[in-house]
Amino acid sequence: MSLIIAIPTPEGFVLSSDTAQAVGQFREQTSKVFRLNDRIAWSGTGDLSLVQRVQQLLTGAQDSPVSLREIAPQLANMIKVGVKELLAADFRTEVYLSNFNAVTQLHRADFVFVEWSNTPTILHLNVLGSPVWVTERPFFI
User: Fold this and answer.
1) Rounded Cα–Cα distance for residues 25 and 9 (Å)
2) Nearest CA-CA partner of 74 in 104, 40, 32
3) Who is most buried in 4, 24, 104, 136, counting CB within 10 A?
């Protein structure tokens, strides 16, 4: 289980995560906080294959000068694309096809994006790509 915390401050934000990564019985230390551009950073927790796929999809958006509010719909779509790709490759999908809740549990993940421009902005996107804007308070998952 991963922990991500985003704390807004008057001067910017703190985005932090644990560094433990587990794949099966293998454990390693890795960074889970990434830079999208000069103002936006992000982190993901949950299914490692989904977090890595979203990271690959975000490569094309790196260093784009857009704001978090402008790019939020694209970020949500990238998460949905990543989930669809993983579900298409996962043999368990067919078994759970008639059970929406079971299908959504196959690749669980949460993503936090933070931006500093004039004020700190925090965006939480879940595995369904549903946005939750967090203002003026810390956020953790």
Assistant:
1) 38
2) 40
3) 4
Q: Is-contact 78 60, C-beta < 8 A? A: no
Per-residue pLDDT tens over the stretch 53-68: 889 988 877 777 888 9
Tokens 């549990």 sit at which residue? Answer: 105
Q: For residue 40, give the H/E element and its range.
A: strand 40-46
- In this structure, the chain runs to a length of 141
Q: How many CB atoms lie within 10 A of CB 92?
A: 13
